[in-house]
Amino acid sequence: MASSVSVSSKNQFRPFSVLFIGAGNITFGNDNVRWNHSLRLERHLGTRLQVVGIVDPSIPRVQHVLTQKASSAAAPCYAKAKHFSDLLSAHEYLKDDLPDLIIVATPPHLRGTLLPDRDLEKRVITLFGSSPALFCEKPVSTAYPHFSSGVATMLEESGNTISVGYMMRYLKVIQKAMQVIRNNNLIIMSVVARYSTAYSKMRKFDWWDKSKQCGPIVEQATHFCDLCRYFGGDIDLDSVQAIALEHYERPGHLSHQDPAIDESKVPEAERIPRATTAVWKYASGALGSLTHIIALHGISYSNEIVVTADGYQLRLVDLYTKPTLFVRTPASDQREDVYTYPGDDPFYSEFASLICAIDSRESPLNTFSPSVSCSHLRDAGGPSQILSSYRDAFKTYEFTWRIRDKSEESSRKLRESRL
To answer: What's the rounded Cα separation, in Å, for the pair 411 and 266?
Structure first.
């Protein structure tokens, strides 16, 4: 077993510099979303945080962000923040004092490949080297997976500490479920996932266009596909089968789309499916299934993952709103043990774990390492290591595309057979 490495007290108080690439909602939020990476960094680092710059082509957006921060309690953290319109300008300014962490959070069509103008990770590594850690958003790209595999290899060889934003792995109910599995040496038999989306407030037009955001499996269900892999292990991609309810089929009619959404402006072939069901086998032989449905009104989603092993059922529900774990064991076949963790914030936990890894420079620097231990995180019931490497995130991305491809293939064959 790897020995644990404590974070030095010296590192816990030294300034910690951050460069943001992308000033969108995922990094700085808005009035309608829970995600906001800057707030989690401010909360965890406190006065240690020094934002050295924001790379984004939009001057109004960056000005808005910096104005908001200047009037907040975190104002000192942004006192020296500069706006850079491109990565080269940022490097020229920061090359003599490199940031500790670079947040890579541009739209995914700009990253995740080695193709010109879609190779952001490569350009970051080329300019800034192996010293800064990288936090990369998901999905890792919008290109077909074979264009992204080279990025995973490049980052594994780069020497940078890497974390990818599959924050649901950091939920305490997820970690509790993994603890039950480990402590009882369970061999997983099946993983069954269901994700029902509330669509009536979906005002982002590109979300309804597969050519823009790759469709609901790749863009939205990616978190649940990732959790299916997290619980069940590697998937036999050749075993994946999928079917879809398409927009042109009678049950696929949606009655409460936001008035701002006019799907007639989306090419028919690029309109998203209303429901997708996939089944597969894991490399272990276990079975898996996922159903993603666009059907609910309002803003509240409904979701559930059920993990089954001999004598055990682990049922995880409402992972976005009130994460709850129900566990049935051989000793509790008449009831379920219930676990909830009010106030749990997986976005915070993923950054706390990453910063712990950065501060523990004695640890291996690429992907996550079990040798990196942050006792204060573990004692709080959260994970104490990086849980999603780029290679792992790439496997999830590859899996989501396999589901999309198989569902489109089955829909095409069915439609042709009905002509």
So the answer is: 18
In order of 22, 220, 331, 387, 396, the CA distances from 162 in angstroms are 17, 22, 41, 10, 16
For 357, how many CA atoms within 13 A lie in the half-sphere containing its CB?
Answer: 31
Which strands sit side by side in the sheet containing 324-328, from one edge to the other?
241-245, 275-281, 287-296, 188-198, 302-309, 312-317, 324-328, 337-340
Q: What is the DSSP letter of 372?
A: B
Spatial neighbors of 232 by CB under 8 A, at least 6 apart, are 188, 191, 282, 284, 286, 288, 307
pLDDT in tens, 361-402: 644 433 333 333 465 455 555 566 899 999 999 999 999 999
Specify the pTM.
0.92
3-state DSSP call for residue 317? strand
333 versus 412: the higher-pLDDT residue is: 412
What is the torsion angle, in degrees rounded to the nearest 10, for the CA atoms of residue 139, residue 352, residue 129 and residue 95? Answer: 120
Rounded Cα distance, 175 and 172, in Å: 5
Please compute the mean of the pLDDT values over residues 91-117 and round it to a whole number.
Answer: 97
DSSP 175-243: HHHHHHHHHTT--EEEEEEEEEEE-TT---GGGGBHHHH--HHHHTTHHHHHHHHHHH-SB-GGG-EEE
Contacts of 374 (CB under 8 A, 6+ apart): 7, 352, 353, 356, 360, 384, 385
Distances (CA, A) of 239 to 214, 225, 282, 292, 414: 22, 15, 8, 19, 20
CB-based contact 136:163 (threshold 8 Å): yes
**299: three-class secondary structure by DSSP:** coil
Q: Determine the pLDDT at residue 22.
A: 98
Amino acid occupying residue 328: R
Widest Cα–Cα separation across the chain: 71
